[in-house]
Amino acid sequence: MKKIVTIVAFTIGLVNLHAQTETKKTDTNYNKWSIEVAGGVNKPQRPFSAKEYYTNIPSPFVVDLGARYMFNNKFGLKADIGYDNFTDGKNSANFESKYYRADLQAVANLGRIMNFETWTKTIGLLGHTGFGMGVIESKNMPFNDKMVNFIAGVTAQVRLTDRLALTGDFSTILNASQDATFDGVYRHNEERGFSGIIFNGTVGLNVYLGKNQKHADWIVLSENADVSALENKIANLEALVNKIPEQKPQVIVEKPTTTTIVSDKDPIKEMINDKYYSVYFDFNKATPIENSTAAIDVVLTYLRKNPSASLDILGYADQVGTSEYNEKLASLRANNVKTILEKAGIASSRLNVVGQGADTSIQKDSEEARRLARRVTFKVK
After folding, report:
1. Is pLDDT above 60 for 117?
2. CATH architecture of 33-209
3. Could you give the percent of the chain with pLDDT greater than 90?
4. ∠ Cα 312 334 380 (to 5°)
């Protein structure tokens, strides 16, 4: 009876944990702040006072400085300031103007949204857009022209280290209520809409700040948060099971013969074979995540208490990548778990590795499902 109660307790605990993990997904083990520094070239498109005024294509120079905060690995905000210098191009009439701006922009990590991690760990892509204020100064103009601007652009990233990324950005700036031309001439009774257009191209650096190893730009969320809760819950339930005394075989005597009924159910073995104890892995990794050690400990304890038992170690991968690569990765994960058990004193002859390749029963388009697919399960024989 106690073993039946134990199995029910395990089931209730797992169902309750599943309900919790559906609504709670947190992972703060990454940095969120960064500083952005860049410089490059520009092309003011319009307005100019006459055809005789224009800049080179492209024209130096641009300086940008910003600070960015990511709410998670996909979305954030940044505040930045910029400076553009506009000077006459070849064969143009002489002029020089300066453009200053300050903007608040929303940022989308397109690399994570489009799952760049499935094919690269060093290339990223950010999208950004927002509003701000701008000012044009010119030696030909006795006043400074203040205006509202709209900015949008994309930033390509190349990760150099966990603290540094090389960037290349292309942005478009639209100015509203621009009263002066880029060559410094006041315009009378002109349109007040987004009539000013500037194209900027820059190269720069992202400097990542914080005590953690990786920044939100490169982290893949839900790698281990839910699994941690699952493994901890199972470990607690396992402790409860160990406190329940083993039942003795039941003997029923009937006349004129005697029949002995032996209870041969082993709840721990059943839980292992039903895949309640699983070892999970980060994307494209063959080393178990830290919180999966609880499952390995349960299996190890069972093998030590049952020296005649043998074990199949079944490795899986998600469906991202080629089938050949996933078969190798699944086998490598299973072999690494086998090595852990061997180092803990379990004979190699009791352990059999089975590489299952990609788990096609898991939904490929779901990040949560793919996380659950990256695992090793066990079958006690």
Report:
1. yes
2. Beta Barrel (2.40)
3. 52
4. 20
Average of per-residue pLDDT across 221-232: 48
Query: Does 124 score more than 60 pLDDT?
Result: yes
Q: Would you say the pTM of this structure is higher than 0.85?
A: no
Give the CATH fold of the 2-26+222-380 domain: 60s Ribosomal Protein L30; Chain: A; (3.30.1330)
**Residue spans per domain, the chain:** 2-26+222-380, 33-209
Residue 275: the pLDDT is 87
| SS3 state of residue 339 | helix
Distance CA 337, CA 279 (A): 8
**Bond prior to 44 in cis (omega within 30° of 0):** no
Q: Which residues contact 41 (CB under 8 A, 6 or more apart)?
A: 58, 59, 60, 61, 62, 200, 201, 202
Strands 279-280 and 375-380, how do they pair? antiparallel
